[in-house]
Amino acid sequence: MYAKINDKYEITSDSHCFMLNRLSEAGKDAKEPGKKVSTTIGYYSSIDGLFRALPDRVLMKSEATNLQEAIKEVREIGDRAKKMLGALK
To answer: How high is the pLDDT of residue 16?
Structure first.
């Protein structure tokens, strides 16, 4: 399974689990600067578990500078997750 949540996160899976990945670009000192990089930040036994953990993961990695920005980011990702989960059921 592959599902892009937004420009920062995607979901992948294998035969054992679902993975939440953070998307970024390789830094200027990397072998291939600017290359898109996917880093796994969580492993989940169910898609429901991944979606329940998603807001917390987003908040921990947020670049928000105030509470309103953080709340907005978590709400947006939560709304997107609900739509994606609804489509899967």
So the answer is: 95
Q: In the structure encoding, which two tokens stand for residue 23, read together?
A: 């998307």
Overall size of the chain counted in residues: 89
- Read off the amino acid at residue 38: S
Is residue 25 within 8 Å of residue 38, measured between CB atoms? no
Question: Average model confidence (pLDDT) for the chain?
Answer: 88
For the chain, the structural domain boundaries read 2-88
What does 19-53 look like in DSSP terms, one character per residue? EEEEEEE--TTSSSTT-EEEEEEEEESSHHHHHHH
Sequence letter at residue 60: M
Residue corresponding to tokens 């709304």: 79
Task: Enter the tokens of residue 7.
Answer: 């420009």
Q: What is the pTM of this model?
A: 0.78
Q: Half-sphere exposure of residue 55, counting CA atoms within 13 Å on the CB side?
A: 13
Q: What pLDDT score does 14 carry?
A: 95
